[in-house]
Amino acid sequence: MVSTELRTSPSWALRLIVSWATDRRAAVGAVTLALAGAATDLATPLLIRSVVDGLSAGRSVATGALVLLTVAALLRFAVQFGQRTTASRLANRVQHELRVALLSSVCRYSGQRQDAVRRGEVVSRSVADLQVVQSLLALAPQAAAAVLHVVIQMVIMFVLSPVLALATLVTIPLAGALVVRSRRRLYAATWLSQQATADVTSFTGEAIAGLPVTKVFGREELIERRFLDLARDLYGKRQRVARLNAAFGPGLAVLPQFALVLVIGVGGAMTLRGEISVGTFIVFAAYLLTMTGLIRLLAGVISAVALARSSVERIHAIIDSAERVPEPPAAGPRTNRGEGLGLQLSDVGLTLGPDGRDVLRGVSIEVSPGECLGVVGRAGSGKSVLGLVLQGQYRPSAGRVELIGSHGRFGGEDDSGTVAPGDPDVVLLTEEPFLFSGTVRDNVLLGRKFDADRYASALTDAAVDPMLERMADGDRTSVGEGGAWLSGGERQRIALARALYNSPRLLVLDDATSALDTLTEARVFDALRRRLGRGCTMVVTGRRRAVLSLADRIAVVEGGRIVEQGDARELLRCSVRLKTLMGEDTPTPTLGADEVASGESQVHGTPPQDAGPGAAGAGEEDPAAVLAKYVAELPPVVDVPQRADVASGRHSGPFGLRKALLPVRPAAVTALVCITIEVVAAVALPAVARAVLGRSTDGDATAVGLLFTLGLAITAVSWIAGWGTVRATTRVCDRVLFAVRLRCFRHIQRLPLSFVDRARSGNLLTRMTADVDSLSAFLQTGLLSLIVNLQLLLGVALMVVLLVPGSWPALTAAALVVFAGAVAFRRIVSRSYPRARELLAAVNADLHEKVHGVRTAQIFRCTDRLIAEFAQRSAAYRDERQAGHRAVAWFFPLVALAIDMALICVLLPTAVAAVPWKVSDDGGTIAALVLYLSMLYYPIQQMATVYDSAQQAGVGLHRINGLLAQPVEDEFDGAGAGLPSTGGALRFDRVGFTYRRDAPYSLLDVVLDIRPGQSLAVVGPTGAGKSTIVKLLARFYRPQRGAIRLDGVDIATIPLRDYRRRAALVPQEAHLFSGSVGENIAFGRPGVSRAEIMRTVRAFGASEMIASLPGGLDYDVGPRGSALSAGQRQVVALLRAIVSDPDLLLLDEATCALDLEAERSIVNALREGEGGRKTVVVAHRLATAAQADVIAVVERGRLLESGGHEALLRSDGLYADLWAASEHDGATSNRGQGDSA
């Protein structure tokens, strides 16, 4: 797993500032504009003071001040536009650079660290955490300006009236105490909340990848319960953050109101005594009202800082954990391409995993240039790990791996013998190759320069050309995400062509042809032999004699050690151990009785260390330990979602806010009431100020005191209402988001695989992360701000009209300007925001894919190209976002300008008496008017952020509803024919099927019968349609022609859930869920006893494998089973299928990663336990297929022949050719004579 170690030093802020200031010109511009903005904001109340005080000095003074006020308003518009544009550009740039840095760092991970990566967590940090950082950086210039504004404001206030300024300073210690008290607790709670978000994201990605397994076992409800537990945990932790925010946020926000009440009381008394002018009183009041908005902004920034701190540290935990991957030597003795290249391993050892297991021990062997070494061993013996060491993916914990030339070790001091990932001379090809989205040609070239001769040779040698002949677009055919649109054999052939195009001098093949049919494999081996003859050195790992036919020497690996090595022909003739592995001797029990007991004791042993968020790898510190001091101060999580929220999440159909709010109506009404009380309190204070000035002029000290008391009461009510607002709105938000997450997840679980295969899993993950996060941001902060600001705007407009009835023309004119601007603004952003959202989805999907393909990219030295492609895609999103921000940057300053001009128009008649609807010269009325209009600046500033958030949320909601609108699998809840008797026969009745309407049929007119208790093997060339038969039987797809019948009943009419719960599938690429071995085995049958699991383990000869794992059944398999070898994953997947006790067992190359001894043991156990079970086996190992009762041979989607093994051999058709090419894999059928079907 990615290291999540936290460094609690303040360097995170410094690093963020350095990143922000990299573009010096923009950074200097942002700071300058922030200063200019603060200056214009501060100058406006002073100019208004000049207008008010100038009324008594003469109209010319007031008129001159109004001219300056007009200039200040225009300057404010220009400054705000520049400030917003620059701030968004800087924030978007940093977000882009950090996103690219995340991928760049993962691309530098060693093989060990790649195994520990939780892909979903990397995507989560690139989505949720980067969004938090971007939001903070966008606010940073405003926050800096706000701090500067407050400081200069206090200086001006001291100059105007030291006594009144001292009265307002009382609030500063209170604010500091609130911030200090909340900082640590809020930081720790926020970190845990974000980690819970990452856990939800990781599990979602894992569930999407494991969808076929979930569906075939009918365990959607089990996966949903696991997701529900994670979502509940996230809800509780988010609510804890909300409680902590409610404890300090409203108090901090109400302090400026408290200071304003102090000014009203003290300033009223000073005005009463003539110590300050009405204009000075207005300046103080206006500054403090402005400060209310500024403090709200700073309170939001403090919360954002707590979020951003953990986000920045989580992002840099990935970036900083990147390792320096050794570069292959650029020059030296190795550069002579004509010279052979060999290998020398000297006492190599390797330790992996948090439990520190020794997977290789004292391995010493030499491979001469031009030689082929075969490596064999049981599942988990260390073969694949050895291949990764040879390619430089894993760095040995002990010993040395060196490349050698024809004359021995390379001389010099240039590390010519060093093996490093991306070494052009060394290429590793694994059993489960990774293909990138794109065409066949793209995946063969991987950005390398095109050479027609090399390209044609690679396609021919890898047997890709016959495959391309069947594709309408040839090598321009798209392979889908991860090669999902191709069969396993097709993926292996393209990967082999990619490796051969590199013309490697050392080729490491880790069972890289296991999914090929025997004829294709024989053709590939002939090409590999020719390359051996031309001096290419090879190391091949395999489990079949056909693979070892390439080898000059063979090394047998057991328990990470080479226990036997020698000449290939000699070992194959004499070695009992090797013959056993090849399945040529009678297999011996894997464990004796005593050993089984010992294994059982291990099975019930202590579980290994949890591989959760804290298990970053050996020697790395658990974040829980780092944060222990802070976490200890946190209150417990006490909030849980309501039943109504769970019920709402289980609804189907589009998501609408109106319906979603129905279960949370009491909290929503409470929030609305509290918001209204806050707004009324805010609007009431200027009226109190007006009354105080009026009573001061009359000399009524008692009335001033009563009004002061009223102001304190209003402030206290506002504080209480603010606390209620935060609690109620966050509860509403989190309950709605809980329901959205649950509904989306449930819907994804019920989508047909035809849709999931077409949609990139990264896109589906984006719907559950970025789109839900955008909705979350709007509901949690944007919606609240929108309601508050709209109410405030309406309240202020009403009060201004009541104060100055003749002001409506000016306000109407301002409204018309704003309306015209809004029309143009909406036209721009309605195009920009959806485009930006689609680009973000593409960025996230691309990151998801490239994180999975890092090992392939390292092997073929194309990580720089991957990073460049991703950077280009990310830059396109950055530029589109900036286009939207530019529209925001001019529109909202325009709104502020309109209000400034309305204020000037309202004050103008006071200065120029010729206008009949002039404002009363009463100082209290002017003060109230100025204060009310001053209150509008902050809402307008906030509306820009709110609108941006609302647009993102709107696009996110549209995309979420686009997902929810996708039809789920037909008859999931089933209502039709009941499930026939479990002993029924299956029949393919002239079945035809195509994956895409414009593509040829993958199956056509197939007629097959599978009787109860019968096993059917499906064989044929790669891409013939074998796996398609399995997918149709699993009901992942529906045939377009004909029908599949169970006891004469079309299976399409049988309730899907019932049908699948009686079936089990073991795919070639076994998917395991995070959790223990035992939990994965019991997946298909929750509640099965541990004793029954162990009986199955013994029956299938897996006791030794289970016993070898620390903790046995309790051993944590890691994300997607990454802690196990491919063979071990297949064994667990097989056990999972058998324990579920299915009536229909589907095995799609289910034993291809096992040695022949283990495979034969499993096949024999399957036959002994068949009973009335129907078994369908897709196999390229014909020795396995030969054990079946009936063998069906398919080619290009058509059934060519079927029957028993012996009968098909006598018919001398395609099966006989395949059998002859296989050389029997060292195993002879022990079946009797079969009859033709």
Automatic annotation (TrEMBL):
GO terms for cellular component: plasma membrane. Residues 28-307, 669-952 form the ABC transmembrane type-1 domain. Its main location: membrane. Pfam families: ABC_membrane, ABC_tran. Residues 343-584, 986-1221 form the ABC transporter domain. It is found in: Cell membrane. It is a multi-pass membrane protein. SUPFAM superfamilies: ABC transporter transmembrane region (SSF90123), P-loop containing nucleoside triphosphate hydrolases (SSF52540). The chain crosses the membrane at residues 26-48, 60-79, 132-152, 158-180, 247-269, 281-308, 667-689, 701-721, 783-804, 810-829, 888-917, 923-940. Residues 583-619 are annotated as: Disordered. InterPro entries: AAA+_ATPase (IPR003593), ABC1_TM_dom (IPR011527), ABC1_TM_sf (IPR036640), ABC_transporter-like_ATP-bd (IPR003439), ABC_transporter-like_CS (IPR017871), P-loop_NTPase (IPR027417), Type_1_exporter (IPR039421). Signal peptide: none annotated. One of its GO terms (molecular function) is ATP binding. PANTHER family: ATP-BINDING CASSETTE SUB-FAMILY B, MULTIDRUG EFFLUX ATP-BINDING_PERMEASE PROTEIN RV0194. Belongs to the ABC transporter superfamily. Lipid exporter (TC 3.A.1.106) family. This is Putative ABC multidrug resistance transporter. It comes from Streptomyces sp. SANK 60405. The gene is lipS.
